[in-house]
């Protein structure tokens, strides 16, 4: 295979990524994530997965200083890759949730989170009161066969008025249908004045493609996008 394409990735890495995206049931997917936890960080390093860095950098740029006292919820936190990036940028009050106990165990070992809870987004409500967080991140989990786009109101619920939501999704061929659904839901919430869009940044080299079909114009990479929204400070009252 041409160098730089997903074919150059170790077969085991390609297999684990494909299995998670192919899994048909929630219980099977969670079991795969539990099993993947031990080598997840090595695999995403091989994939040159840039989403945690890009998301944290975008959020830090948007966020009013100082960061240290801000309370953040890292949804689908995995092993803590986003927390590392946020911590580097001065965020210290980090809470995380994930549907995989195996991933949470790894996240706990980082010592970066003040609180970690098991929560399967899309099935369970977030374990937090309304208007509790200054910012909420969902990096990597919004995609085909992963977290449904119907979770957006629940993410908004736990965000303080004026708080920020940082979301990412992939733009590769197999995620196009999901991305269109997600963007329609994002726009609907913006039209209803629930939040306002501050950023939608398309990134060409998001991560290495695991197959020729997924590669963007033969680059060997797939593209992705970072969205930043700000929750509207007051409900918009329609004039009677």
TrEMBL record:
Residues 73-163 form the Methyltransferase domain. Coiled coil: none annotated. This is MET27 protein. Gene3D superfamilies: Vaccinia Virus protein VP39. Pfam families: Methyltransf_25. InterPro entries: Methyltransf_25, SAM-dependent_MTases_sf. It comes from Horornis vulcanius. The lineage of its organism: Eukaryota, Metazoa, Chordata, Craniata, Vertebrata.
